[in-house]
Amino acid sequence: MFSSTPAAFHPRARLTAGAYHQVGVQTMVNDATPHGLVSLLFDGFIAAANRAKGAMRDGDIAAKGLAISQAMRIIDEGLKAALDLKTGGRLAADLSNLYAYVCVRLIQANLYSEAAAVDECIALVMPLREAWTAIGPGQPAAAAVHN
Fold first, then answer.
1. Is residue 51 assigned to a domain?
2. CATH number at residue 116
3. N or C end of the chain: which has fewer CB within 10 A?
4. From CA 75, how far away is CA 46, in angstroms rounded?
5. Is there a domain that residue 59 lies in?
6. What does the pLDDT read at residue 49?
7. How many domains does the chain have?
8. Which pTM value belongs to this model?
């Protein structure tokens, strides 16, 4: 009836936990506003970058590669792809360039197992995430704050 293998290490438990995670993520995405979707991308990037650092620390090359690939896809296919370079002006162009730089640093982090490069990427993205959160729904408007 009971296994001597702890549940956290049991393959079926991992599959079940993974399925619940996928359902949770899918629900968050389906219920999110456009602003919320970008917030989820920022959060996903930070989580993937931290997983990459943990994998580097553990010497798990495969997990490091998967986590860095996920972080790069979030930046390139999510955040960068969502930019409107035609109407976004210089801000959109600057963000595009920053996202391109973050991807280059993530490639270097993967090639050389440089946790410092991942930390740099997190440090570059965190202020964007914080600013995005600050302008989100439910936050006081700038005009109201200054009145």
1. yes
2. 1.20.120.340
3. N
4. 10
5. yes
6. 98
7. 1
8. 0.77
Which letter, b or e, does each residue of 49-69 get, where b requires 16 or more Cβ atoms within 10 Å of its Cβ? bebbbebbeeeeeeebeebbe
CB 122 within 8 A of CB 46: yes
121 assigned to some structural domain: yes
Give the range of the structural domain holding residue 111, as residue numbers without chain letter.
33-134
User: CB–CB of 122/138 below 8 Å?
Assistant: no
Q: For every residue of the chain, which 3-state class applies, written as one string?
A: CCCCCCHHHCHHHHHHHHHHHHHHHHHHHHHCCHHHHHHHHHHHHHHHHHHHHHHHHHCCHHHHHHHHHHHHHHHHHHHHCCCCCCCCHHHHHHHHHHHHHHHHHHHHHHHHCCHHHHHHHHHHHHHHHHHHHHCCCCCCCHHHHHC
Mean pLDDT comparison of 3-17, 18-32, 66-80, highest-scoring range: 66-80
Report residue 53 as tokens: 């650092």
Q: What is the dihedral of CA 100, 106, 111, 114, to 10 degrees?
A: 140
* The two structure tokens encoding residue 68: 């860095």
Distance in angstroms (rounded) separating the CA atoms of residues 110 and 61 = 9
